[in-house]
Write a structure and sequence with these properties.
The complex is a heterodimer of chains A (135) and B (137).
Chain A: E1 2-14, H1 23-30, E2 39-51, H2 63-78, E3 81-82, H3 83-86, H4 97-108, E4 117-126, E5 129-133
Parallel strand pairs in A: 1-3
Antiparallel strand pairs in A: 1-2, 2-4, 4-5
Chain B: E1 5-17, H1 26-33, E2 42-54, H2 66-81, E3 84-85, H3 86-89, H4 100-112, E4 120-126, E5 132-135
Parallel strand pairs in B: 1-3
Antiparallel strand pairs in B: 1-2, 2-4, 4-5
The chains are: A alpha+beta (135), B alpha+beta (137).
């Protein structure tokens, strides 16, 4: 068993704002993150898969293919986008880093081959704040 | 001997922005600014490095008290830009395109006005880990 991680990144706008609450309550709970006109981040995404390397190639999985899968199903949907407004898999959800990491996991699962297991999605919102989801 | 030394303070702010020229069509803006022109905005973790150069005060040994420098940056720069939409929430970028170049000019002028004339100032602004600007050049 070996772990393989691919790092990708995307830049996006978002806000933490529950539309069923008043503006005052949103500001009380989410502080500056509730700014109505959005703010933004440079997100760093670590996708880790695990499994046994193929004896002929020595690869667990072609990391270029992993990168293509992440780009097609995740970063193209998120990069230079407004997470609250433009992302199909976040519609109706709060745009917290937790929900974003869980959403990214759901996006990746159907596109990975049976020979590898998705181990974790680690998502940095800032260099000091990150979440990790393992299904 | 009066020796100059540079002292640095790092700060950061998170903001949304959009690059576009108001007089241009959406197509023209997309051609020049690409996905940075997305009308729904995108955002960055901006890292700001402020460099102050001068001769240390002979009594304190300080070029500038770092706590004072940090307070100046927080009060006059971060309070304006952190968790804001640069295009919509700041008067500085109400009409000026919020490129990294223009942001660093604005931050420089704000800080220049707060620092003693005897001190030299330089500002470096990272928009991403790989994209950054510096002023004066």
């Amino acid at each position: 068993m070996v772990f393989l991680t691919r790092i990708e990144h995307f830049n996006a706008a978002h806000k933490l704002y529950n539309p069923s609450w008043s503006r005052e309550k949103n500001e009380q709970v989410f502080g500056a993150c509730a700014n109505e006109n959005w703010h933004g981040h440079n997100y760093e995404l670590y996708v880790t898969i695990k499994g046994v390397p193929d004896p002929e190639t020595g690869f667990l999985f072609d990391v270029k293919k992993l990168s293509d899968i992440i780009q097609e199903h995740v970063t193209e949907k998120l990069d230079h986008k407004n997470l609250n407004v433009e992302v199909d898999f976040l519609r109706g959800k709060m745009c917290s880093t937790e929900n974003l990491a869980m959403g990214i996991w759901e996006q990746l699962i159907p596109h990975l081959p049976k020979t590898v297991t998705l181990h974790s999605v680690k998502l940095y919102e800032t260099p000091r704040i990150f979440v990790e989801y393992s299904g | 001997m009066e020796r100059k030394v540079a002292i640095f303070r790092k700060e950061h702010f998170n903001a949304a922005h959009r690059l576009f020229v108001p007089g241009w069509s959406d197509e023209q803006n997309m051609e020049v600014f690409g996905k940075c022109s997305n009308p729904h905005y995108h955002g960055h973790n901006y890292e700001l490095i402020v460099k102050v150069t001068g001769v240390p005060d002979p009594k304190t040994g300080y070029v500038i008290n770092l706590s004072t420098l940090s307070s100046i940056i927080k009060t006059h720069v971060l309070a304006k830009f952190d968790h804001k939409n640069l295009n919509l929430d700041t008067k500085e970028f109400a009409t000026m395109n919020p490129t990294a170049e223009n942001i660093v000019f604005v931050i420089y002028e704000i800080l220049r006005g707060q620092l003693d004339k005897s001190l030299d100032l330089s500002v470096r602004l990272f928009e991403t880990e790989r994209n950054f600007v510096e002023y004066p050049a």
